């Protein structure tokens, strides 16, 4: 059955599908294809002239689009806008199914599958963005950090929605079972809800005075049980997606450590160079002082020689 206009929020067609969807149909196809040619990523930049000697930013190849990272971040933002809309729709569908146990969960399953497909593609894309050296540039880093945090926030929101639906579905199944078998113990209710195919549930149907209602309850509980199992699998995958987003940082730690080590080596070399320069300056000053002393000694010798010459020649001139 339909949930009154939920298909309008992207439900019913996969925005991450690789098939041609007409105008605008390929808007998000690049998330699943890994193709980032849209937005000018593969277009030639302003540095195509072979004779150009203009300096390029560090870590950015010549001819690359300087706005490539920012453009990709904007596209991720737009995709997250759509997922936010899907989560709002999913939340409304959860509430309707919980209010009416007879409603099918097929549409919830389909929309959840679309959301998970979107998350997988966006996690891959954000990891690709974060792995590029230019993502750490002061110009790009704030936007990269923003989309990374927003993607994690939407994953968190989805985890919360599914956890609440799982809890409420479990409680609803327990209530339905108690209607069929009011005298059931807590342990019997728990076992029946955890495994609708267990003999305890089948026995409750045989012993129930409300066969029709019991059959309907069994069908509903089985359907909720399958939905809960799928949610549990998705929760595990969502946790892995979180780890994948953070893993890129872990993978870059050796590079950061290497940069820090090189920085320390440069610092040590600078200190050593300063020490050697200081020693050279001191030696130069010492040589200069010695030169002045030598010059002073030479001047004293000349003065003494002049005085001696005057003293020696003056008596001789008087005797003459």
Automatic annotation (TrEMBL):
Keywords: Membrane, Transmembrane, Transmembrane helix. GO terms for molecular function: SNAP receptor activity; SNARE binding. Residues 28-45 have a biased composition (Low complexity). Residues 1-64 are annotated as: Disordered. One of its GO terms (cellular component) is plasma membrane. CDD domains: SNARE_Sso1. SUPFAM superfamilies: t-snare proteins. The chain crosses the membrane at residues 292-312. Residues 218-280 form the T-SNARE coiled-coil homology domain. GO terms for biological process: exocytosis; intracellular protein transport; vesicle docking; vesicle fusion. The keyword Transmembrane applies. InterPro entries: SNARE, Syntaxin, Syntaxin_N, T_SNARE_dom. Gene3D superfamilies: 1.20.58.70. PROSITE patterns: T_SNARE (PS50192). The keyword Membrane applies. Belongs to the syntaxin family. This is t-SNARE. It comes from Westerdykella ornata.
